[in-house]
Design goal:
heterotrimer, A mainly alpha, B mainly alpha, C mainly alpha, C: mainly alpha, two-stranded antiparallel ribbon
């Protein structure tokens, strides 16, 4: 049992827990923006982190072509890490611009900046 | 191993069928485009499982990216809701 | 509710037919003889296309004429959409007037830049490795066409035009691609070969990498043609609706 395997398994477990929290949040949270936050937890915590875990797992084992598997999952994880926040930002921006969401914010800095 | 592949194949085929039905019956055209993109992803998984990576490469780019974008452009030029 | 009933009916019929068919199915015992021929000959064999990728050698060599006419159909479709949107010289100048501005917040635009660079690299690798790994000209070109789409979404189409990729240039690149495909198909006639012949006219290897004879040229030109053709259509479609109303003289 090497340290890479343990670390990878811990990361994959973290991913599963994040996925669970994201799903519960999507069901229970009150409005679109907070639900978007839960969805992003599910994407980054539940997709990017387990992919990094797979990288460590692949490096720790003796399967053939382990470098290829590790590199592919590392690159995929990094792309998700880049794209998921950008997508969530674009969604929140579009929803705010279209003014279709009923919510009662304490402060709305985007609205203040636009004035 | 082949049983696992066939099970995934059956499930994705049913997902694709369901979403194509939803895309046809949906009155909000933007939602219909989103349903059709989901159907395209399901079919891409099917093509990958049937060992046709060439088709997957073209299909993902066209059906999820280009086709949806073209439809969104065109919906932007007309009405958003389908009127019967 | 009505939709749910229809869905349930469709699912039941599909599952029923699938179950019925699966009871009466006899599995195929042997490989198709044509398939055996392709697998044997695509790299080794006497009728080799000098390409380790059997699919690409079928697409551009063994069944090359089919692909040539498919490409022709696709480009006739693009010409059709360009004809629908044809503008006079002043009108197309006016369609270019506009400020390139960010339409989305800054982090999205920064990520778009990185992703566009990645898409260019990946699509080039899909197209130019078409004779080694799955992929090819059409796949790479359609992946390439996603890049201008992202730029249009994040920065508006004027950013593309200000940086030199306007409709005319896209059509020129597309024509270069088509001309390249036609010339590559006609080259064997010069040395008394037949139309679209691959081996032994084109070199099979360069610098130790298998080129697949003419396959790499077809892939490269198809890549350019498909990417630029899609880009031209997107540039036309993203002209704002108000400008079109003005061109057509429609009153609001």
């Amino acid at each position: 049992m090497s340290i890479l395997l343990t670390l990878g398994a811990i990361l994959i477990l973290t991913g599963g827990i994040c996925d669970l929290f994201g799903a519960i949040g999507l069901l229970k949270f009150p409005n679109f923006y907070v639900r978007l936050h839960a969805a992003t937890v599910g994407t980054i915590g539940g997709a990017a982190v387990p992919l990094f875990g797979v990288t460590l797992l692949a490096l720790g084992t003796d399967i053939p072509n382990k470098e290829a598997i590790a590199g592919a999952s590392l690159i995929t994880g990094m792309i998700i890490l880049l794209v998921a926040p950008a997508g969530a930002t674009a969604l929140a921006y579009a929803a705010h611009k279209a003014r279709i969401i009923e919510w009662k914010p304490k402060t709305d800095q985007l609205k203040e900046a636009r004035k | 191993m082949i049983e696992l592949h066939l099970t995934i194949l059956a499930i994705t085929a049913l997902i694709g069928l369901t979403f194509s039905y939803l895309a046809i019956t949906e009155k909000d055209l933007l939602k219909a485009v989103a349903y059709s993109a989901v159907q395209a992803i399901a079919y891409a998984i099917i093509f990958y499982l049937l060992m046709a990576p060439d088709i997957v490469l073209a299909y993902v780019a066209i059906a999820v990216g280009i086709y949806s974008a073209l439809l969104v452009f065109i919906i932007g030029k007309t009405e958003r809701y389908e009127v019967v | 509710m009505k939709r749910l009933i229809g869905l349930i009916i469709i699912l039941t019929i599909t599952l029923g037919v699938a179950y019925y068919v699966s009871q009466n199915l006899t599995p195929q015992k042997s490989l198709h003889p044509l398939g055996k021929f392709y697998l044997k000959n695509s790299y080794f064999g006497d009728y080799s296309a000098k390409s380790p990728e059997a699919v690409t050698s079928i697409v551009w060599d063994y069944r090359g004429l089919d692909t040539l006419f498919e490409t022709a159909v696709f480009f006739i479709a693009i010409i059709g959409s360009l004809t629908l949107f044809r503008l006079s010289k002043e009108q197309s100048e006016e369609a270019k007037q506009g400020e390139p501005k960010r339409e989305l917040p800054e982090p999205v635009c920064a990520v778009t830049k990185i992703i566009v660079a990645m898409i260019l690299a990946v699509s080039a690798s899909i197209a130019l490795h078409g004779q080694l790994t799955p992929g090819g000209g059409f796949q790479g070109g359609s992946a390439l066409a996603v890049a201008p789409l992202l730029i249009i979404a994040a920065y508006s189409k004027y950013a593309l035009e200000k940086n030199g990729l306007d409709k005319t240039r896209a059509i020129i690149i597309r024509s270069i691609g088509l001309l390249g495909i036609a010339l590559t198909a006609l080259t064997p006639l010069l040395v008394k070969g037949y139309f679209m012949q691959n081996q032994p006219i084109f070199p099979g290897k360069a610098l130790g990498a298998p080129l697949g004879g003419s396959l790499v040229y077809y892939n490269l030109f198809e890549y350019l043609a498909v990417g630029a053709g899609f880009t031209a259509v997107f540039l036309l479609l993203s002209i704002p609706e108000e400008k079109f109303r003005k061109f057509l003289g429609v009153k609001q």
